[in-house]
Each structure stands twice: as structure tokens, then as C-alpha cells.
Design a protein that fits this description.
13 helices
Length: 313
Amino acid sequence: MRRRRATPRDATQERHPIDWRGIGWYLLGAFTLSWSLMIGLRWLGLSAQVRATIGMFGPALACVLVRWLRREGFADAGLRLAAAGIPRAGRWYLTAYLVPLAILLAGLGGSLLLGLQHWILPQAAQHLHLSPLALVGILIALPVVIVGLVMIATFGEELGWRGYLLPRLLPLGGVQAALLVGLIWGIWHTPLILLDNHGFGSALPWLSVPMFTLVITLYSILLTWLRIHSGSLWPGVLAHAVINTTVSFLFVSFSVANSYLGSPIGLVTMLPFAAVDLWLIVTGRLQARGRIGHETHSNAEQERKVDDAQGVP
């Protein structure tokens, strides 16, 4: 029998097997914690936005619990603002802010040109009983203060999805890991869609859930790129906050005749996101390059061995 020559990919997979047990425990914890909060707090009369925000910390809690109980350490969590060996780390924060904002604005521009939406912010402000002065204050605070506050919540998700799950799936390959994280992350939103009209709403659940999962998967590819190349969790936390803040603002500021087509999450915005993601994939920018995943996960294993030797529980 002719033996197949081993490839670098084979060697990588042999040296760094995927920890499916850890992934399984993490997913069980993330979904159980978040869905319990999203659904259970509904009975206490809390608003959808409050329950969604609280539920965003389920992935972070699951990450901390699994790392603690399995003594995995946090070496591959990306908690440093600037990862070692990454030159000009600040550029990744600028990129994290500007790239998703530009994509969302491009989608809005396409929607306006096609006549799918129009400006309704003054009417929305009146409906919310906001004075002109209050509205101006919100618009001034939006780019920095509100994005900064939203980062508190997005950290709750990012610590789980790209601080735990992504590094453990990277042996599959950067593209495959990004797609799988996106699929899981999208399905995680299901209670918010079905119970609280999140995203595309609950009127057509057979369409809303898959469509929103597709949107989240497009986000996942971009956030994976930031995580890999910055070596840090925080640019992704910032980009996630920019996306959430901008999408919320656009929902309030512009009419949405058909959410499946128009901005900020419909087809006209999916297309520029898909174009950027395709460029990242084709140009090989989702390869780990030793900054996250395999090498850093081995550091976590080494940290656990040290803890065992020192008797740390």
C-alpha cells in the first residue's frame, strides 16, 4: 500500500488535537446560562434589551468556569491590550472601529440609493419624548461614550466566543473555525429572535433565524481576523460594540420597510460584509500565524502543569 506523505497541516493537527470535551462543556455552559437568563428573566418583567444585555455575559461566565474547573489557565484568552510580538498594536483598534462602521454605512448608502429606506430620526426622537438638546447630546456621545459602555456587554460575548471557543477550533483552519463559531454564535441568539423580535423578528421564524445566523457568521469572519492578527481580544470587543451601537442607531434613525433587504442587517449590508470577508479569506488573512490558538494553547497547558506541580486547585 502506498503511504500518503504527511503534510504540515497533518503535523499541526497531530501536535494540537482539538479539545472537544472542553468545547462541549463550554457550549453547554454558554447556552444554558444565557438561555436561562434570556428566557427566565422574562417572567420578572424585565425589558428585552435588559435581558439581552444580561444574557450576553453567559459566554464569559462559561469561559471562566470551564477554565477554572479544568485548570486551563487564561494564556490563550487574549486579555492583554497589546499582545507580545505585535508591532503597532494600536492600528488594530483603529481598524476595529473604522472597518465595521464603514461597511455598515456602505450598506446604508446602498439602501438609500435603492429607495428602501428614509430618514425618520426626528419622528423617532419625538416618539421617545427626547428634546432636541437631549438628542444632540446622544449623537455627540454615540461615537465614544456609548460605544465604550456597550463594550462592557460585548466583552461578555467575546471572552467566550473568541476568547475560548475560537482558539480551540483553530486547528480546523482559520476559515473553518470562523464559520463554525459564527454558526454557533448565530444559533445562540434564537430565544431573542423568537421571544423578543430581535434582528429580523419572529413573524417568519423559519427565515429569521437562518438569516440572522448568516449575518452573525459574516461578523464572525471579520472578528476572527481581528483576533488572529491583533493577538488580543479587545479589538474584537471594540468592533462588536461598534456594530451593535451602529445597528441600533440605524434601526431607530431610518425606516425599515423590509428588514431582510434594507440596512442595517438586510441583504444590502450583507453584501459589503461578504465582499470584505471574501477578500480576507482569498488573501489568506485568516491563518493563525502563531499568534493565537495552537502555540498559545500550549502555553495554557504549560501553565496548568505548573499549577499542578505547585498544588494549585
